[in-house]
Amino acid sequence: MAQREWVEKDFYKELGVSSDASQDEIKRAARKILAENHPDRNPGNNAAEEKYKAASEAKDVLSDPAKRKEYDETRRLFAGGGGFGRRFGAPGGAGQGGNFGGFSGDGADFDLGDLFNAAGQSGGANIGDLFGGLFGRGSQPRPSRPRRGKDLETETELDFLEAAKGVAMPLRLTSPAPCTNCHGSGARPGTSPKVCPGCNGSGVINRNQGAFGFSEPCAECRGSGSIIEHPCDECKGSGQTTRTRTINVRIPPGVEDGQRIRLAGQGEAGLRGAPSGDLYVTVHVRPDKVFSRNGDDLTLTIPVSFTELALGTTLSVPTLDGKVGVRVPKGTADGRILRVRGRGVPKRSGGSGDLLVTVKVAVPSNLEGDALEAMQAYAAAEKASGFDPRAGWAGNRM
């Protein structure tokens, strides 16, 4: 996008955030607007589609720190400066209201917007490049390159086990994609774009005015460097059509809640065969009734009886891949964590975390018959043995 368009658009307003909003605030606001106005949820709603496009454009700039900084600096430079239509006239000094005199050798008006038009077509030149070009010492115009498609974002929800083990899943998207009729070239099948004769494919025209040199977008090809004489009937020469497509996505093992996965080349199609943008998939993980995780470690709490802790036992414990036997030593305390090496969540670097098993005593709510008599006999024997679970517990406060 050209700097001129940046000044004319208020991306912060599009997202409903202040100009000093944090990156997290910007992303949350954009995510909400994109979700509410997504084409899948608003079929045939042109207003929602425009809001979706505007929010996507704003997020693309503001969520990138480098683009946001350039955007903010550009807007500050021209804030209150009369806009792009302001003219700098012939010599006149201070009596001319502060206009810059002598910019042009023949006294012709100079439109500052021309600078931005020229810069925007070269991929976003900085202000130094702009004024360098004005005085004939700027860098040479670079050949026009096709505009890459925008990055897209979507969300998906996974079960805990799917996120931990990885899963292949279909993902349905509605977005601009390469035209299937012309394969993204923009030209009618059987024809092809030709190199613009006006700029020889550079997209830029150089001209001299007095002692100064200027560069501006080629009027014949509008800065694209090519001309389509016979536009595609389906996409009208843009090389794009909006369509719903289904792609197969491989979610890697160990993905965490809120993590973003980048799918290269699966975003919005570029204009006239330019490379597509990327697709970023934010993963939301549903909680599991048994498992939780702590980093790469898989955690669970298993109910046990008092006698299993007192006498020791071997427990059958579930893992991501079947069951495993966990030995409980004699005299294990309630709440102790038992570690099973290598049976946790797969790591990105290879291997897996550990399985952490917490034992928790389950107390019977009602004892009757032999169980009650046995428990009473045990309580008496325990007391007679001198065992006191609260010995030394409160010091001298008891």
Topology:
Blueprint: H1 3-8, H2 11-15, H3 23-36, H4 46-62, H5 65-78, E1 87-88, E2 110-111, H6 112-121, H7 127-134, E3 152-158, H8 160-165, E4 167-178, E5 194-195, E6 204-209, E7 212-217, E8 226-227, E9 240-251, E10 260-263, E11 279-285, E12 292-294, E13 297-304, H9 306-311, E14 313-318, E15 323-328, E16 337-340, E17 355-361, H10 369-384
Parallel strand pairs: 3-11, 13-17
Antiparallel strand pairs: 1-2, 4-9, 5-8, 6-7, 10-11, 12-13, 14-15, 16-17
Domain J: 10-75
Cofactor: Zn(2+)
Subcellular location: Cytoplasm
Structure characterization notes:
The chain is of the alpha+beta class and 398 residues long. Among the domains are: 143-193 and 228-286, Urease metallochaperone UreE, N-terminal domain (HSP40/DNAj peptide-binding domain); 292-386, Urease metallochaperone UreE, N-terminal domain (HSP40/DNAj peptide-binding domain). Helix content is 26%, strand content 24%. The protein is built from ten helices and 17 strands. The strands form seven sheets. Strands 12-13-17-16 form a four-stranded mixed β-sheet. The model is unreliable at 80-144 (pLDDT under 50).
Quaternary structure state of the chains depicted: single chain
CATH class of the domain at 143-193 and 228-286: Mainly Beta
How many β-strand stretches?
A: 17
Strand order of the largest sheet: 12-13-17-16
Helix/strand structural class: alpha+beta
